[in-house]
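Researcher: Quick test of sequence recovery. Tokens follow.
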């Protein structure tokens, strides 16, 4: 008996009882945290065992303690909430975990039957559906940005109005300029003031500098990891590459993430050399798609080198004026602005990691990724590598064409 499917069946039978579902999700996360802490997967290096526990714990904490939580999206400036000891819940991770609980379809249907667009990204629809059903307890505050994803602002505006929770939207300019940096810096200072007022606690500027310093140290370790990852077999399964978003984005200024990357670098140094072919992913690693699971998870023939979102900003942040440094980080993100920024990032990763091929998973509803498909294909062609793009849905498994995907993946693997 599959315990996850068994528990999912119980969840699905109780969707009409929001409080019970909320408690069951909390219980499921608690059991998962205990299980991966005690019964560690020996196929994983210590660093990924650590990341597994950490990610589950970071999802559970804001759900269990909503009065000390802020809802954010992946690209929100989480350094401020980290410095104030506030728990961020990032929407994309929540929706992914609901897909892991096998209830994402019910949450998406709940959103759509209440009039929300069926063309909206399923990360958003899953989170919205959970709120429509009253499964998620409301936070104290919501923070998002205007950058990269055009669904963030309408999604969070809707939730802020529905739940009567204050919302702060950071407007990030499309291109870099000194005036633009000052403009974003001013907004970040205002956000800090609003968080202080909402949570009735002060933001210690020295604590924020410490968070930024830790982030810079972490990013230096990320560069060391990339120097080894191209010829080592480190990440054996797709979920752990996605878990790295916890470490590369929302929690990057925390000491726990710094500890993770220290372990990861050491594990990578000691890892065996790769023996099969390796693939660089663009945009997302489709960890719920059956064909990708079959070919990539714990395989000695195919290795996952990583994906570009984990490396969308790799420069240092100004520690003396952290507001200025974070403002520059937001504007200079490789996915913000013209597609040429992202192409430069991909070319740099190809140069560092030396993949045998590149796969772009075009997530339905994500217009910026789908719109750049042909530019990325052209770039990979010039670099002399096989390229595959797959249209699909990371969260809503009903939108994945498994038979067609299998044929295309097999043809791609033959090219490798």
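Model:
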């Amino acid at each position: 008996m599959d315990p996850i499917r068994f528990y999912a069946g119980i969840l699905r039978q109780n969707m009409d009882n929001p409080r019970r579902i909320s408690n069951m999700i909390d219980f499921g996360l608690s059991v998962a945290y205990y299980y991966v802490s005690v019964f560690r997967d020996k196929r994983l290096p210590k660093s990924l065992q650590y990341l597994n526990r950490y990610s589950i714990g970071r999802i559970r904490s804001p759900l269990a303690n909503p009065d000390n939580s802020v809802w954010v999206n992946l690209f929100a400036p989480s350094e401020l909430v980290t410095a104030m000891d506030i728990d961020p819940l990032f929407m994309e991770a929540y929706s992914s975990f609901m897909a892991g609980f096998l209830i994402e379809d019910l949450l998406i249907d709940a959103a759509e039957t209440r009039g929300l667009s069926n063309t909206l990204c399923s990360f958003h629809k899953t989170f919205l559906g959970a709120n429509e059903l009253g499964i998620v307890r409301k936070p104290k505050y919501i923070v998002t940005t205007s950058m990269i994803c055009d669904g963030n602002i309408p999604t969070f505006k809707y939730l802020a109005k529905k739940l009567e929770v204050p919302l702060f939207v950071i407007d990030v300019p499309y291109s870099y300029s000194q005036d633009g940096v000052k403009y974003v810096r001013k907004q970040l200072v205002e956000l800090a003031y609003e968080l202080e007022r909402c949570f009735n606690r002060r933001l210690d500027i020295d604590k924020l500098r410490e968070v930024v310093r830790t982030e810079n140290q972490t990013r230096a370790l990320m560069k060391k990891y990339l120097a080894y990852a191209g010829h080592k077999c480190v990440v054996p399964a797709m979920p752990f590459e996605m878990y790295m978003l916890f470490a590369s984005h929302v929690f990057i200024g925390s000491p726990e993430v710094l500890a993770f990357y220290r372990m990861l670098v050491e594990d990578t140094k000691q890892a065996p050399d790769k023996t099969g072919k390796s693939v660089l992913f663009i945009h997302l690693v489709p960890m719920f798609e059956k064909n990708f699971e079959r070919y990539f998870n714990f395989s000695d023939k195919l290795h996952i080198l990583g994906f570009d979102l984990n490396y969308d900003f790799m420069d240092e942040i100004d520690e003396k004026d952290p507001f200025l440094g974070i403002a520059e980080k937001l504007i200079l993100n490789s996915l913000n602005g013209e597609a040429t920024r992202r192409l430069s990032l991909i070319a740099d990763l190809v140069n560092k990691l030396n993949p045998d091929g590149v796969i772009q998973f075009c997530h339905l509803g994500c217009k910026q990724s789908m719109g750049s498909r042909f530019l990325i294909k052209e770039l990979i062609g010039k670099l002399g590598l096989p390229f595959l793009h797959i249209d699909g849905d990371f969260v809503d498994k009903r939108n994945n064409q498994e038979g067609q995907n299998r044929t295309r993946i097999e043809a791609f693997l033959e090219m490798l």
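The radius of gyration is 21 Å.
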